[in-house]
Amino acid sequence: ASKRSGKMRCTWFNRTFDQRREAVREIEDDLHRALADGEFELAYQPLVSARDQRIVAVEALLRWNRTRGPIIGPNVFIPVAEESGLINPIGLWVLRQSVVDALGWDDITLSVNISAAQLRNPEFPIKLGEILEETGFPPRRLELEVTETCLVLDPVVAERTLDVIRGFGVRISLDDFGTGYASIGFLRQFRFEKLKLDRSLVVQAGEDDGSRAMMLSSIAVARALGMGVTAEGVETEPQADLVRAAGCDQIQGWLYYRAMPAREIDRLVEEQNADQGMAKAKGSNAA
Ligand code: C2E
Ligand code: MG
Ligand code: MG
Ligand code: MG
Question: Where in this chain does the record put each EAL domain (predicted)?
């Protein structure tokens, strides 16, 4: 009986597997065309200072303005692009487009997500160097977000690639901390400039003591190692209070800003600079 049910499960599995395969293949074909037809767009989500809520950075988030099928988010199409290798040209498009968009956003850091396949690609650091040189984007204002899966597969190669990238002056942050297996030892091994606490950990920390303890200890270690800490996915004031008290220096979440087109960031940055200019003028009048 166990053999039979095993076989049944196997047929069932294969059918859904084939269906999944078919759906993935359709997306994959369409991704090729989308890149050629210019259907990708970038949205930018501001990160604010935990201290005064000013915008200190923006994260570039890929959007697919799809004309031939249902609109799907990056959580769906990025894994397909990763499996097919298309993430390499797509990722380079993201880098080039985002640094061009962000050129005029003085003093604001640009964060770009990087997939494991990109980090493993020996061409990647070379292309990154070319993009920085051709655009004149200050490397100090660029930050690449990697996840633990980028690093665990081949830590030696990853470490070497990260060193080359850091050599340009670009900073590295560990994204989605608290979702996978990345341990505190991991932070020490790779020496990231910044830690990003995943939204799930932020939400959980507001709900149970165990998660709060985990968040607090991760932040303490990160700070002791000289890393900046960003809380992701902050949607409520109590969550913002919690992560601020816990020692996060940057906050990202819908409580402050959602992702928006580059033009809107242009306007926000302009406003912020004008406010700062006024504050400065006031200060010097008083002096
Ligand atoms: P991520 O890098 O962790 O980006 C943060 C995600 O959280 C974004 O989802 C953002 O819109 C969402 N988010 C921000 N604040 C809040 C909040 O307060 N509440 C909630 N519920 N969500 C919030 P998005 O844009 O759908 O991106 C999903 C993931 O897709 C990203 O997660 C990243 O892993 C990946 N991704 C996006 N763009 C790129 C890209 O250009 N390259 C690569 N390799 N991956 C990308
Ligand atoms: Mg990210
Ligand atoms: Mg994240
Ligand atoms: Mg995430």
Answer: 24-273
* Residue 2 pLDDT grade (very low, low, confident, very high; cuts 50, 70, 90): very low
Find the 11 Cα to ligand 2 centroid distance in Å.
38
Residue range 135-147, pLDDT digits in tens: 999 999 999 999 9
SS3 106: coil
Q: Kindly give the distance from the C-alpha atom of residue 44 to the centroid of ligand 4, in angstroms, as a whole number.
A: 15
86 contacts 28 by C-beta, under 8 angstroms: yes
Give Cα separations from 65 to 30, 70, 129, 210, 265 (angstroms).
Answer: 12, 10, 29, 41, 19
Ligand 2 mean position to 198 CA, how many Å? 9
**Predicted structure pTM score:** 0.93
Residues with C-beta atoms within 5 A of ion ligand 4: 176
